[in-house]
Write a structure and sequence with these properties.
By secondary structure, the chain is of the alpha/beta class. It has seven helices and seven strands. Helices cover 36% and strands 21% of the residues. Helix 1 runs antiparallel to helix 2.
């Protein structure tokens, strides 16, 4: 990091001298190199609409979820973007507006209201067998919900399909439907069945 800062400072100083063309060239190269790592080139919406993962989401939604007006949920912000691009009902989406009544289903006593009552991206972290949820804010605009995907409260929220970046063999309410790759990572699609007490 110090090397990058030093090179950038030298380039900025060069901009203030007669070596400004060199400084400008270095600044442009630094901007392109640093931007390419986080913003890969993509033509149009590309993968969001024409990839096999997008087709998989549309197929599963049509055959399992949408016919009964049920919902998806995911443990990945990248997968959430894919789900939202397909227009599916997604519990792990952007928390705007904040649906207090839905949050009260998961957090009836409001123990975590300070964490979930905000505009932010909802991401689930699946932990089979976890007795109760935990809600955290790893960043101001992230609502991270650690919960058992078989938690009986999800029945009231009509959760039907769970997407996980890791296998969930201990989640007894889940049956694997398919697996896909998105953004170079695996995403396992599970159908959620009824759980005791739901």
């Amino acid at each position: 990091m110090w090397v990058a800062v030093t090179v950038f400072m030298a380039a900025v100083l060069a901009l203030c001298t007669r070596l400004w063309p060199v400084g400008l060239g270095v600044v442009c190269v630094l901007a392109l190199v640093s931007g390419a790592a986080v913003n890969p080139l993509m033509h149009g919406l590309g993968d969001l609409t024409n990839s096999s993962a997008a087709a998989t989401v549309r197929h599963v939604d049509k055959s399992i979820v949408a016919r009964d007006g049920q919902n998806w949920a995911s443990d990945s912000g990248d997968v959430n973007a894919l789900l939202n691009a397909q227009g599916v009902n997604n519990l792990s989406s952007y928390n705007d507006p904040v649906h207090k009544s839905a949050w009260r289903v998961l957090d009836p006593r409001g123990q975590y209201e300070e964490q979930w009552n905000r505009f932010g991206y909802i991401v689930f972290q699946w932990e089979a067998g976890r007795p109760s949820l935990k809600v955290e804010n790893p960043a101001e605009d992230i609502v991270l919900v650690t919960i058992d995907p078989c938690d009986h409260h999800f029945a009231k929220l009509r959760l039907r399909v769970v997407v996980s970046s890791e296998p969930l063999p201990d989640a007894t309410c889940l049956t694997q439907v398919t697996q896909m790759r998105w953004m170079g990572k695996p995403a396992i699609v599970y159908e959620r069945t009824a759980t005791p007490g739901s």
